[in-house]
Fold:
Amino acid sequence: MAVSFPTVCTTLPRIQLTLIILVLTLAMGHVDPARLPTATPVPFLTRQLDVKIDPKEAAAILLNPSPLGNGGYSQGIVVTIDILPKQGWQVDKWVGPVYKIDGTTAQIQMDSRSLAVRLIPTTPPTATPTTVPTATPRLQLPKGLWPTATPRHTPAPSAYSYFDKGKKYYDAKNWSLAIEKFTKAIQVDPDYALAYYNLSNIYLGLSQPSLAAADKTKVCSLDSKYC
Structure:
């Protein structure tokens, strides 16, 4: 479309006339372009997973995958939960939105944030002593000449054998079985300092500082070089 300009007196100097035309052209033709809205960045949201153990000191917890940053998970991710009971405890009940429950293992989808696991003490069966019949000698020999039967020695479980198996599970990062074997080594030999030392390291890696501190205190009382 042609632009009409107002009539300007021809008596004005040529330079002033040119400036007036330029100002009118800019005023009529200059339009600021509309600004596009700026997209607001969506923050990365994480969810905290709260696993409560009842009683608290009865077991340790192992999460796979491990939490991101300060313990968060992105929404919708599936987390596998392994409960590592201490000696004398077993898992009784899972409470919460978990599925694929297999004894001490279950899974949860991170649309939920909390669950609880109840443990109960295990009571080992009481062994019933077996009565061994006494052999009656056929011949009556003078007192002091009858041969004395030599008792057969039943080898007791070796603390070292339990420790050796626990070390193999430790190297394979199978924390649940490693804890079980080191605990049995301590039951056979309550002064097995190196077994306490390895248990302390496992609980420290599983973010169980109270359990780790208890075993570390026992280590220091047995052998100061492991402190």
About this structure: The chain has five helices and nine strands. Residues 48 and 70 are 9 Å apart (CA to CA). Residues 159-226 form a domain with the Serine Threonine Protein Phosphatase 5, Tetratricopeptide repeat fold (CATH 1.25.40.10). The mean pLDDT is 76.
